[in-house]
Automatic annotation (TrEMBL), chain A:
Keyword match Transport: no
Pfam family, one: MOZART1
Single Gene Ontology BP annotation: microtubule nucleation by interphase microtubule organizing center
Organism per entry: Erpetoichthys calabaricus (Rope fish)
Lineage of source species: Eukaryota, Metazoa, Chordata, Craniata, Vertebrata
Coiled coil regions in record: none
Keywords attached to this entry: Cytoplasm, Cytoskeleton
Keyword Cytoplasm: yes
Family the entry assigns: Belongs to the MOZART1 family.
Recorded name of the encoding gene: MZT1
Name by which UniProt lists this protein: Mitotic spindle organizing protein 1
Cellular component aspect of the GO annotation: centrosome; gamma-tubulin ring complex; interphase microtubule organizing center; spindle
Primary localization: cytoplasm
Compartments where found: Cytoplasm, Cytoskeleton, Microtubule organizing center
TrEMBL record, chain B:
Domain Gamma tubulin complex component C-terminal: 715-1007
Keyword Cytoplasm: yes
UniProt key word Heme: no
Protein function: Component of the gamma-tubulin ring complex (gTuRC) which mediates microtubule nucleation. The gTuRC regulates the minus-end nucleation of alpha-beta tubulin heterodimers that grow into microtubule protafilaments, a critical step in centrosome duplication and spindle formation.
CDD domains: GCP5_NTD
GO CC term (a single one): centrosome
Protein name: Gamma-tubulin complex component
GO biological process: cytoplasmic microtubule organization; meiotic cell cycle; microtubule nucleation; mitotic cell cycle; spindle assembly
Keyword field: Cytoplasm, Cytoskeleton, Microtubule
Pfam families in the record: GCP_C_terminal (PF04130), GCP_N_terminal (PF17681)
Localization per Swiss-Prot or TrEMBL: Cytoplasm, Cytoskeleton, Microtubule organizing center, Centrosome
Amino acid sequence: MASVAPNLSAVRETMDVLLEISRLLNSGLDMESLSICVRLCEQGINPEALSSVIKELRKASDSLKDGTVVLLCSRPETTLNKEPVYNRNSLTFASYSNVHGLFL
Amino acid sequence: MSHWNTFERDLEKDVKKLIKSVSGLQDENDVNFQLALKFTWSNFRFHRFLDVNSHKVQNTVDGIHEKLVVHSDMVKAETWKRITTEFLNSPLLSDGKTKTELHYSILSLLLFLSDSPSNSSYTERPRLKEPDSENYFDWGKYLLEGEEIILGPYPDTPVWSEDDDEVEEDSEPLSREDSGIQVDRTPLDDHDQAKRAVQVSWKVGEPDARTWLEQHVVTQYWTAKSSRFSHSLHLHSNLINVWEQHLYNIDPLYTPEEKVFVSETQVIRETLWLLSGVKKLFIFQVHDGKITVRNDVVVTHLTNNCLRSVLEHIAAYGQAVLRLQTFIDDVTGYSIECSLPVVHNGAKKASEPPFRTYQAFVWALYKYFSSFKQELTNIERCIIAKDETITLSAVLERLTPHLAQLKVLHKVFCTGVAEVPPDTPNVVRASHLLNTLYKAIIEYDSIGEASEQAVALLFLLWVETVRPYLEIVDEWIVHGNLFDPAKEFIIQRNKDVPVNHRDFWYATYTLYSVSETVENDEKLSDTASGSSASDQAASAASKQHTMVSFLKPVLKQIIMAGKSMQLLKNLENKESTQEQLSLRDAERKSLYTLFLESVQSRLRFGEESPTDIVTEQQATKRSLIKMQSIVARHLELDDVNDPLLAINFARLYLEQNDFHEKFTGEDIVFDRSSESVTCQTFELTLRSCLYPHIEKRYFECCGNLMQTLKKDYRLTEYLQAMRNYFLLEAGDTMYDFYTAIFDKVFEKESWQQLSFLSVQLQEAVGQRYPEDSTRLSVFLENVDPSKKKQPINNLDGLTLSYKVPWPVDIVISSECQKIYNQVFLLLLQIKWAKYSLDTLRFSELSAAVRRNEGGLFDQESAKEPIKQQIHRMFLLRVKLMHFVNSLHNYIMTRILHSTGLEFQHQVEEAKDLDQLIKIHYRYLSTIHDRCLLREKVSFVKDAIMKVLNLVLMFSSRWQAGFGAWKIESIDKMESDFKNCHMFLVTILNKAVCRGSFPHLESLALSLMAGFEQC
């Protein structure tokens, strides 16, 4: 444990620097989400995909809060590769009040 | 893909965290959350983005620097340059490597997410590095020491938090002992606020007052930034800190969350409040009728997860309490807010009559809750007194029986009330609730000792809930008035049928049979007449618990008694005075009271024998009673050798000591401490406590009604009159009537004139039964002429009608009169045949012969055949007479008379009106059958009719005189008769041999005798 320890504090320091970068770039990530992102990237998630997901999630949750909500289309479409492809371009949440039934 | 599988779980967790943190959706079962999860996964797995290119990223970083320089934002540009370099040169993972692919990945992610960095204002925040490294060493030592020497407080232990200094500042004026232990991650900017809150809280400048307040006032843990409370520095009280430190040490990316520290006492008190139905709480929160536990609440001696699992367990009970409480408020009309779906069910407009079954149920629930709350209050009082140590687990332990009961209650409530769809009619809801309780009792009862408390509770609930039903039944079977404004009883009155209507008995009430499986009511337009009611009961038994189960065994009695009572009331109204009735009513005990008294006495009953013997030996009372009771039980139940049962009985009776003390009198109070009413045999209890009362009442009502009908409304006399006229029991009277008709036919005059028939009937009846002459009338129905081919059918269409006054017409309906008329017609036909044979005179034929002698046939040879022919005529006549007389005898004596006697006997014994109606119908169908009028045996009847026809033809030829017909016709008649006779004898013999129609034996024998002589 003692050998790992200096690294730990160094990593923590790096995270602080990273937070600064994040703030400077105005990316809107806080420490918690930043560390989640680091973990995800560490596990091999493509950063570009991750960034698009984050953007879409933000958009969707904003519209959910606004109450202007349309049904989300994320049904898999079968392509020639037989690989389920979701509509990755947009994500919209359904609010309970209007379109709950459509999910059934 | 195998790579994915290895990290699948970790990744999944992180992805969920990401969604929670970015979108703010907390509930993983949320549809939107699932949607987002799917979306995220599909994006992560199937995308067309290129891998990160470090050169490209470096280029972009440089580009941004350049851009910032172009914007002449030199400070920012310099900072950017510096921190990116610093970042790339510092390790991101614990392996210590720099400028890895991960660095560039993260950087590129941030670049993708960046939102016009040049436009936003940015100031670099100073980063603190030093305390971290120091902290590490201190904590390591701290923990190691904690492992080795289990010792008390560690006052010098520094805190690992960055905000350590500020925290200490805050707590100093409060003379905290825990400084350095608490982890407070309050961001810098929030600190002023925290300070302010503290200052406000402690404005009471005097030190004494402050001390007093510290001791007596609860810390405002519910406010956003509360001050911390004092607690021990012992390791055990700081488990959470140790745990947090551990997490912090093993995971560099660990970010501690905001936490609110509470003490266990506060948690206990909130738990108690939650269970007593308080909605505005801090630790537990109500969202849309759902109780959730706050995420950020911690106690210092437990980890977050541990506390959470305990609290979630409690929250489930809190949820049950809340739902029940809402239901109670809703039914009582107390609450304004409607949050549960149940509320819609019970929500009533003021104009609607109260739904008494729910009200009773709520009353029972309320009673339970008041005792439960009393227990909660006791615990809280203990906490306030601080005389003993009270822990959360101790409280839960103490509440265990209550919580188990709460669970049972909630289960019953869910199935019995909450799951019923909103637009269900009251009758279905009421019976569903009662059924649910009933089933639950039986279910728990079968478990035995383990669920004693549950059974006791459910029994109380049931007894209370069933009250409106029993009151409705009581009102109905005592006053004949089905008072049920909310339409909750399974039987409902059809408003459009007046009591003094002929159809009253059949069409007045509708029995709602509630099918559990389909959950909708079938309106059996049955009319609840006795026969059909029992049919329904049978069909109901096939579906399980179709209607209110507990009433099923006595349903028929209730219906009978109720209808009888209403009818009786209507009959009596004219005679007895209202005052007498009300006087009688005042002394009467209601069915519910009687039921409760019986339950009470039943529970007391078994106790007497053991207690008599052991009153003196108080010390060993309990065990001795058990022994005694075991012995007693063993003696009583010779065949049932079950010691467990015996013990149960013993305890049951013992524990009910105080039960029935509180149970007596009008105001029945169930004491909770004594609720060990283990109704070992719940159905037996019902059978002995409830059913006898209903049955007694049923016998009274129906007996009264029968008495009234027989005595005041001369039912038996009317039945006798029916037999007199339709079945020709008043032989002389009817003889006058029908011979007049036969004579008319004989004289070839038209008898089919209503005036003639009426006069004949009036004359005949008026002489002997003057009172019936007005009621009895004769009618001629138009009969299809094609059917009148045979002379015997000449009489078709002649019907009698007897005007039966209400209420006797319930028994003697017009349908009955139709059957009577069918028999009447058959009898007339037989009588006619008999009459026409009887009135033939030998002299007529001899005279004809004599005439012939002097005339045409004077030869000797011709004389012989004529005499022979006349002899044959005589013989045929006698044979026919034998046949007709046998038939006549069979019908009049063997069938009508004996069946009539049986019927009279049964009428005497009939217990209720329904039975009487049934008896009457059975009687009618029996004579209908036995007179061979049934479709199935129509071939026999046809043969008989043929013979009767033959008789009529024979008699008309006889009367026409000898010579008016040819000798061949005699041959034909003889052979026809022989054929029919043989046929009948064969058929009847077969039937008799089979033994299925014993009554036919005499007819078969007499016919056979006639046949053999031929």
